[in-house]
Design brief:
about 140 residues, mainly alpha, Arc Repressor Mutant, subunit A, two-stranded antiparallel ribbon, 4 helices, globular, disordered C terminus
């Protein structure tokens, strides 16, 4: 199935995309940055840095710390954080509806054998013997 991924770049320089939104959704479900990060295969530090970035991008926090309780604190999605998820998911739905015919046309023109050998280019040039580690030719 052909799908489209949307990243929104703000004039301020911040951005949101499927990864940050998935992190917010997992925080909503788990009440924990750590658990959300683990569920998405990222370290606590990476998840925390993304949350910190989200809280700095917007004029209101998207998550906040939950105070103590029986099992200690945690993290909660704010009402504004819920709105961010809702707006992003609405943009995705509307973009898909508006571009479905174009996506279908692009998909119809793809090579059905592409990726059959599972050696799909990941953009890293790792399999190119002419290019070593880093950005230039190996010396």
């Amino acid at each position: 199935m052909t799908r489209m991924r949307i990243r929104i770049d703000f004039e301020s320089g911040g951005s949101i995309g499927p990864g940050k939104i998935a992190l917010l959704e997992h925080i909503r479900g788990t009440g924990s940055i750590s658990a959300a990060g683990r569920a998405l295969g990222m370290s606590y530090r990476r998840a925390w840095l993304l949350v910190d970035d989200l809280n700095r991008i917007f004029s209101e926090p998207v998550v906040s710390a939950a105070v103590g309780g029986k099992h200690g604190g945690g993290t909660v999605l704010t009402a504004f954080g819920e709105q961010v998820i809702d707006h992003y998911r609405a943009v995705e739905r509307e973009a898909h509806v508006a571009t479905a015919h174009r996506l279908a046309a692009l998909a119809a023109g793809t090579n059905p054998d592409y990726g059959a050998d599972r050696q799909v280019d990941d953009g890293s040039f790792a399999s190119d013997p002419a290019v070593g580690p880093g950005c230039g030719p190996e010396k």
